[in-house]
Amino acid sequence: MLALTDxxxxxxxxxxxxxxxGGDSAALVQLCLEQAIAALGSALFAQERGDxxxxxxxxxxxLTAITALxxxxxxxxxxxxxxxxxxxxxxxxxxxxxxxxxxxxxxxxRQDFLEIEAALRGAAQPAAAE
Length: 130
Hints:
By secondary structure, this protein is mainly α. The protein has a single domain (25-129), classed as Flagellar protein FliS (Four Helix Bundle (Hemerythrin (Met), subunit A)), CATH 1.20.120. The protein contains 5 helices and no strands. The protein has helices spanning 7-22, 25-49, 52-71, 80-99, 103-129. Helix 2 packs antiparallel against helix 5, helix 3 (52-71) runs antiparallel to helix 4 and helix 4 runs antiparallel to helix 5. The chain is globular and about 40 Å long. It starts with 6 loop residues before the first helix and ends with a helix.
Protein backbone atom coordinates (compact mmCIF):
# COMPACT_ATOMS: atom_id res chain seq x y z
CA MET A 1 0.00 0.00 0.00
CA LEU A 2 2.72 2.48 0.93
CA ALA A 3 4.58 1.71 -2.30
CA LEU A 4 1.64 3.13 -4.23
CA THR A 5 1.69 6.40 -2.29
CA ASP A 6 3.53 9.47 -3.54
CA UNK A 7 6.33 9.99 -0.97
CA UNK A 8 5.84 13.77 -0.97
CA UNK A 9 2.12 13.36 -0.30
CA UNK A 10 2.78 10.81 2.44
CA UNK A 11 5.24 13.18 4.13
CA UNK A 12 2.80 16.11 3.78
CA UNK A 13 0.02 14.06 5.37
CA UNK A 14 2.17 12.87 8.28
CA UNK A 15 3.40 16.41 8.89
CA UNK A 16 -0.19 17.67 8.75
CA UNK A 17 -1.36 14.99 11.20
CA UNK A 18 1.40 15.89 13.65
CA UNK A 19 0.50 19.58 13.55
CA UNK A 20 -3.22 18.87 13.95
CA UNK A 21 -2.74 16.64 16.97
CA GLY A 22 -0.25 18.95 18.64
CA GLY A 23 -1.83 22.34 17.99
CA ASP A 24 -4.11 24.70 19.83
CA SER A 25 -6.96 26.50 18.05
CA ALA A 26 -4.73 29.36 16.81
CA ALA A 27 -2.23 26.88 15.40
CA LEU A 28 -5.03 24.98 13.67
CA VAL A 29 -6.35 28.17 12.06
CA GLN A 30 -2.81 28.95 10.90
CA LEU A 31 -2.51 25.43 9.49
CA CYS A 32 -5.82 25.66 7.62
CA LEU A 33 -4.82 29.02 6.15
CA GLU A 34 -1.47 27.59 5.03
CA GLN A 35 -3.25 24.62 3.45
CA ALA A 36 -5.73 26.85 1.63
CA ILE A 37 -2.93 29.10 0.35
CA ALA A 38 -0.86 26.16 -0.86
CA ALA A 39 -3.84 24.41 -2.43
CA LEU A 40 -4.97 27.51 -4.30
CA GLY A 41 -1.41 28.02 -5.51
CA SER A 42 -1.34 24.42 -6.69
CA ALA A 43 -4.64 24.82 -8.55
CA LEU A 44 -3.41 28.01 -10.24
CA PHE A 45 -0.14 26.35 -11.22
CA ALA A 46 -1.98 23.30 -12.56
CA GLN A 47 -4.25 25.49 -14.66
CA GLU A 48 -1.23 27.21 -16.21
CA ARG A 49 0.30 23.81 -16.98
CA GLY A 50 -2.92 22.36 -18.37
CA ASP A 51 -3.08 19.63 -15.70
CA UNK A 52 -6.77 19.08 -14.83
CA UNK A 53 -6.04 16.29 -12.33
CA UNK A 54 -3.68 18.44 -10.26
CA UNK A 55 -6.07 21.41 -10.57
CA UNK A 56 -8.90 19.27 -9.20
CA UNK A 57 -6.73 18.08 -6.29
CA UNK A 58 -5.80 21.67 -5.48
CA UNK A 59 -9.39 22.87 -5.56
CA UNK A 60 -10.50 19.95 -3.39
CA UNK A 61 -7.78 20.61 -0.81
CA UNK A 62 -8.62 24.33 -0.82
CA LEU A 63 -12.29 23.60 -0.29
CA THR A 64 -11.48 21.25 2.59
CA ALA A 65 -9.29 23.88 4.28
CA ILE A 66 -11.87 26.62 3.79
CA THR A 67 -14.62 24.40 5.18
CA ALA A 68 -12.49 23.68 8.26
CA LEU A 69 -11.91 27.42 8.70
CA UNK A 70 -15.65 28.11 8.47
CA UNK A 71 -16.48 25.36 10.94
CA UNK A 72 -13.90 26.67 13.41
CA UNK A 73 -15.24 30.22 13.62
CA UNK A 74 -16.45 31.12 17.11
CA UNK A 75 -19.87 32.55 16.24
CA UNK A 76 -19.77 34.78 19.33
CA UNK A 77 -16.42 36.42 18.49
CA UNK A 78 -16.44 40.06 17.34
CA UNK A 79 -15.02 39.23 13.90
CA UNK A 80 -17.12 36.12 13.35
CA UNK A 81 -19.49 37.64 10.80
CA UNK A 82 -16.65 39.15 8.76
CA UNK A 83 -14.70 35.89 8.77
CA UNK A 84 -17.75 33.91 7.75
CA UNK A 85 -18.32 36.29 4.83
CA UNK A 86 -14.69 35.98 3.70
CA UNK A 87 -14.69 32.18 4.01
CA UNK A 88 -18.11 31.89 2.34
CA UNK A 89 -17.00 34.00 -0.61
CA UNK A 90 -13.80 31.95 -0.87
CA UNK A 91 -15.80 28.72 -0.85
CA UNK A 92 -18.05 30.04 -3.62
CA UNK A 93 -15.02 31.09 -5.69
CA UNK A 94 -13.48 27.63 -5.38
CA UNK A 95 -16.74 25.84 -6.15
CA UNK A 96 -17.35 28.08 -9.15
CA UNK A 97 -13.87 27.35 -10.46
CA UNK A 98 -14.57 23.64 -10.56
CA UNK A 99 -16.65 24.11 -13.70
CA UNK A 100 -15.51 27.56 -14.87
CA UNK A 101 -11.95 28.15 -13.69
CA UNK A 102 -11.36 31.79 -12.75
CA UNK A 103 -7.63 32.27 -12.16
CA UNK A 104 -7.94 35.97 -11.30
CA UNK A 105 -10.60 35.34 -8.66
CA UNK A 106 -8.68 32.44 -7.11
CA UNK A 107 -5.48 34.50 -7.07
CA UNK A 108 -7.40 37.23 -5.25
CA UNK A 109 -8.77 34.74 -2.71
CA ARG A 110 -5.26 33.36 -2.22
CA GLN A 111 -3.94 36.89 -1.63
CA ASP A 112 -6.69 37.53 0.94
CA PHE A 113 -5.66 34.37 2.79
CA LEU A 114 -1.99 35.39 2.64
CA GLU A 115 -2.89 38.71 4.25
CA ILE A 116 -5.02 37.07 6.96
CA GLU A 117 -2.27 34.55 7.66
CA ALA A 118 0.36 37.31 7.91
CA ALA A 119 -1.85 39.31 10.27
CA LEU A 120 -2.39 36.29 12.51
CA ARG A 121 1.31 35.49 12.50
CA GLY A 122 2.06 39.11 13.43
CA ALA A 123 -0.53 39.08 16.21
CA ALA A 124 0.89 35.86 17.66
CA GLN A 125 4.52 37.04 17.75
CA PRO A 126 4.15 39.72 20.45
CA ALA A 127 2.25 37.24 22.63
CA ALA A 128 5.02 34.68 22.18
CA ALA A 129 7.70 37.25 23.10
CA GLU A 130 6.08 38.13 26.44
